[in-house]
């Protein structure tokens, strides 16, 4: 029979090894930006009676503040597919490319459902440059016609 002290030592070493490698994301950032929505380019219009299945492409801007003259920091570019029979939700896949400021040249990859009313909660599934290995989420909400309030929460190494 093995010594209880040896088993305890092995258990402590295993926990220490897991703790040393378990948290690869050492940095955290919260960005609060504002989106000015461009008119989406409708790529595919599948139904006359409803919008289910329609595919939209977009190229918007993210600004530092809600004022139209605020500095443009990034461009969310991608597509949305109307994924709800009522037309109230769209599945989105896009990249936020930073074009100014501290993160210029870096990007975030985003997937998730956008709701036409209420708060949209989407996942950050990767990134480039400063945000390589990024994970996180984006909460956004329409605050005015053509404008969304973006709260971006990012962890990365």
List the helices and strands and how they pair.
Elements: H1 4-22, E1 27-36, E2 41-44, E3 55-59, E4 61-63, E5 72-82, E6 89-98, E7 107-115, E8 119-128, E9 135-144, E10 147-156
Antiparallel strand pairs: 1-4, 1-10, 2-3, 3-5, 4-5, 5-6, 6-7, 7-8, 8-9, 9-10
Description:
The structure is a single chain. Strands 1-4-5-6-7-8-9-10 form an eight-stranded antiparallel beta barrel. The chain has one helix at residues 4-22, and strands at residues 27-36, 41-44, 55-59, 61-63, 72-82, 89-98, 107-115, 119-128, 135-144, 147-156. The chain has one helix and ten strands; from the N terminus they run αββββββββββ. It is 12% helix and 52% strand.
What attributes does this structure have?
52% strand; eight-stranded antiparallel beta barrel; AOC barrel-like; 157 residues; 1 helix; mainly beta; single chain
Whole-number mean pLDDT: 84
Q: Determine the fraction of residues in helical runs and give it as a percent range.
A: 10-25%
According to CATH, the fold-level topology is AOC barrel-like
Return Rg in Å: 21 Å
CATH architecture: Beta Barrel
Tell me the overall shape. Answer: globular
Number of domains: 1
Order of helices and strands: HEEEEEEEEEE
Assign the structural class, choosing from mainly alpha, mainly beta, alpha/beta, alpha+beta, or little secondary structure: mainly beta
- Distance separating the two termini: 44 Å
Structure annotation, total helices: 1
CATH class membership: Mainly Beta
E-strand count:
10
Strand order of the largest sheet: 1-4-5-6-7-8-9-10
* Poorly predicted ranges: 15-23
CATH superfamily: Allene oxide cyclase-like
What's the story with the biggest beta sheet?
8 strands, antiparallel, barrel
Query: Beta-sheet strand percentage?
Result: over 45%
């Amino acid at each position: 029979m093995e010594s209880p002290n040896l088993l305890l030592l092995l258990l402590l070493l295993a926990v220490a090894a897991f703790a040393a490698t378990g948290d690869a994301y050492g940095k955290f950032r919260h960005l609060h930006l504002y989106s000015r929505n461009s008119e989406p380019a409708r790529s595919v219009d599948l139904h006359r009676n409803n919008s289910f299945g329609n595919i939209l492409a977009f190229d918007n801007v993210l600004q530092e503040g809600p004022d139209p003259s605020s500095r443009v920091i990034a461009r969310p570019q991608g597509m949305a597919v109307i994924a709800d029979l009522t037309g109230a939700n769209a599945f989105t896949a896009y990249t936020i490319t930073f074009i100014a400021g501290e993160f210029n040249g870096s990007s975030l990859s985003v997937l998730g459902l956008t709701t036409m009313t209420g708060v949209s909660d989407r996942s950050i599934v990767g990134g480039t440059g400063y945000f390589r290995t990024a994970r996180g989420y984006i909460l956004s909400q329409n605050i005015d016609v053509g404008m969304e309030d973006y709260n971006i929460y990012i962890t990365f190494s």
